[in-house]
Amino acid sequence: TGALAATLLQRPLRRSDPRETLIWMLVIVLCVLTGLSYRNGIDFGAGRMGGNTAVSFVLLAGGQLCFRRLPVSSFGLSLMALGLPFAATIGYLNNAPLLFGEMSLSTSVTLLALGVANVARHARRAMLRPLVSSSRPGRVVRAILLAWLVLVAVQAVAARFVPAPWIATSGVAVMVVDALAMLAVILFLGMKYDASATRLRLTEWRLYNSALRDPSTGMRSRASAELFSATFGPITSHGLVLIEIEGIVAVARRSGPEAAERLLRLVSGALQRALRPEELLCREDELSLLLMVRNCTLEQLGDRAAELCALVAELRDPDREMCRISLSAAAVMARRGDGDPAPSIRRARQALRSAKPGDTRRVLLCEAA
Predict the structure, then answer these.
(1) Cα 2 to Cα 6, 76, 115, 234, 336, distances in angstroms
(2) What backbone torsions phi and psi does residue 144 show, to the nearest 5 degrees?
(3) 339, 238 in Cβ contact below 8 A?
(4) What is the DSSP pairing of strand 327-333 with strand 363-366?
(5) One-character DSSP codes across 73-113
(6) CA–CA separation, 304 and 277 (whole Å)
(7) What is the residue extent of each domain of the chain?
(8) Is the whole model's pTM more than 0.90, yes or no?
(9) Domain 222-366: which topology?
(10) What are the tens digits of pLDDT across the range 267-316?
(11) Where is the secretion signal located (predicted)?
């Protein structure tokens, strides 16, 4: 009566999809074949599937074939959907009649199929979405679930071979293993959640700061470089070029900061016009620029820096009697997966400071920071 009432309350949503239909048809076929094999004296596995159980499974599968996925699924329904495959697996493997009754192999397999098909109806809900997601967290969740299922199966099978005097001790050992495994999973998920929350906060802050422009030159700030590294660092190779204008400190000391700003605007404008789609130019501090490049090697990064230095060398400073403008640059490749440009910037600045006064090289190449 309860099953009939629940079926009548359902709202038809066309028929089930082909894969789900196949699962329900296999359930019906298995129940029919099991009944025929019992009638011919053929038994397989422990226990026997009762006639009422087989008829119930056939009616349940037939009813499910008439409906598609649920239009609304709460957290409680999604959680309850996991109980059926769990009872099917644990009930047969552990052979505990007081908890699950005399479960046969056919009943266990049928319950498992029904449970999987039932879970599929809730798979797109928030709680079960990682089970079907192709993202990295989804793969991690599926790996943890598979490891847990293997652990449960090994414990259930091993319990069948434990001598009677050691049953109590083995139960304590199983409890300890389960507790340690659960503790490891909790700590792992907590670590991932904390890292994700921290990364989200940093990303929001970087997005806000990257929208701000330098009022003097109109250039992007260092926050844009941090967002660049956080975006492309985990997925591809990237590097940076720290660019300094030779003599700009003397210009600021002699003619004031306005002259240094004007010289910086002149250089940044020339570099901005020569940028490629995979490059980003931003202002590092008052006297230096930062060029971010992705999908490159250290040699390509050095060649690109030399090309830009040669481009700026063709400029003339009108306030310094048309003198040439010279640049010093340090190219650094970041480590794969590094989402913070700070180590690379420190390495580049250290390379520029440690360059010998007589060194004629305008571009210094550095290994990974």
Answers:
(1) 6, 19, 19, 53, 59
(2) -65, -40
(3) no
(4) parallel
(5) --HHHHHHHTHHHHHHHHHHHHT-HHHH-S--HHHHHHHHH
(6) 13
(7) 2-127, 222-366
(8) no
(9) Alpha-Beta Plaits (3.30.70)
(10) 888 888 888 888 989 888 878 889 999 988 888 888 998 888 888 888 77
(11) none
